[in-house]
Amino acid sequence: MDTIKKLKAGKTTGADLMHLAKLSDGMLQKIRDEMLEPFPRKVPPIISSSRLQEMCGIDKQRMGYVLKKGELPAGTQAKAGSPRQFTVEETIAWIRSERNPLPRNGPAKVIVVANFKGGVTKTTTSTLLAQGLSMRRGRRVLHIDLDPQGSASTLYGINPHAEVDSSQTVMPLIEAYLEGQPFDMTTLPVPTYWPNVDIIPSSTELFNAEFMLPARAASDGEVRFEQVLHDGLAQLKDTYDYIIVDTAPTLSYLTINAIFAADGVIVPVVPDMLSFASMVQFWHLFGDLINGMQAFDDGRAKEFDFVDVLVTRMTSKPAAQILQGWITQIYGSRVVPIEIPESDLARNTNMRFSTFYDLGPSDVGAETLRRIRTPVDQLVDRVDDKVCAIWAQEE
Length: 395
Ligand SMILES: Nc1ncnc2c1ncn2[C@@H]1O[C@H](COP(=O)(O)OP(=O)(O)OP(=O)(O)O)[C@@H](O)[C@H]1O
Ligand SMILES: [Mg+2]
Known about the structure:
By secondary structure, this protein is α/β, with parallel strands linked by helices. The chain has two domains: 47-99; 109-394, P-loop containing nucleotide triphosphate hydrolases (Rossmann fold), CATH 3.40.50. The protein has 15 helices and ten strands. It has helices at residues 2-8, 14-35, 49-56, 60-69, 88-99, 122-137, 151-155, 171-178, 209-219, 228-233, 253-261, 273-292, 318-331, 344-351, 366-394; strands at residues 47-48, 76-77, 84-86, 109-113, 141-145, 190-191, 197-200, 242-246, 264-269, 306-311. Strands 6-7-5-8-4-9-10 form a seven-stranded mixed β-sheet, sandwiched between helices. Strands 1-3-2 form a three-stranded antiparallel β-sheet. A hairpin with a 6-residue loop joins β2 and β3. The protein is globular, with a radius of gyration of 24 Å. Bound molecules: adenosine-5'-triphosphate and magnesium ion (MG). Magnesium ion binds next to α6. Magnesium ion (MG) binds next to α6. Residues 108-289 form the AAA domain.
């Protein structure tokens, strides 16, 4: 209080400043302690029988028939006659049997979520894709957190400050590459709380890659620094169906590596003027980057299976509608015909280190949940349908 009174009186002494410094120290220590605490372990959500039926594409009768046969998990019931509930693991067993997804044909597809603009839902989208492809299509997914901020890691309940050191991130791959040593990538993925989703987490030390890669490239013109991740991932493409990569909002060396490793790129964009303007810059940089890249070692030029624009945080505001019109006009068929709406729920769930897919009917009203989950479900299904079509072509 004394400090505030003196500041109000317009006199700030050296002693006041020392006092402020002391207060900041105390606060920083408190924040640091909190940052270093491991997060509470997460658990996957419970799936209702109606949601299970929707995901499997079956009706109540079919479900009753399958349950009678007794070959698939029966879930649990609070008491006889009450609705059944299923774990995500049980749901996946149903999906694999009833939906019967096309098996992966060829190596895993690498999907990178990128936009150099911050806060356009890259991390949210990449995590929903990983969770959704596992739950709705029974896929095996590896999620790679390439952002030193570690936001994707936090969505899996991992505290990147307290629980991850550089040896658990993609750093050892980069170090081995720079030393000209082989590296066993199969040592990096770790299981998450979500069935069939593994992660290679991030930590702040990933920032070091931004100094190491260019330093080596400058001293050795032959070094293909943009190919490190692409080459490393080759070892994992038989184990997984999808490798989903979350990137930082910068054109960093790690982001360049992600883009070079990508089969498909999803560019989330928020329909506001700033986002739209920075998209223009994104395409210039992205285009220059790919055109400037030397071909692969075997002479092939870099190509993508798809580069899609996803409109997210869509609102009914006139400005948003106008911008969405422009986006469609410019990017045409590259715009995913699904809008992810702006949702207060999203802000709140992320605050609790969760996504929409983590929530069950007991956490939030069924209708609120359905409104946001339906377009996300459609996005997941569309990605898998698209990739299945590509796998079929590659046969
Ligand atoms: N559909 C949505 N509606 C409203 N808010 C959302 C929605 N999806 C995500 N958000 C919120 O938007 C913010 C940014 O999301 P997110 O962290 O996924 O973006 P990002 O592009 O990864 O950010 P960064 O560039 O910092 O990595 C978060 O607070 C998140 O909770
Ligand atoms: Mg992010």
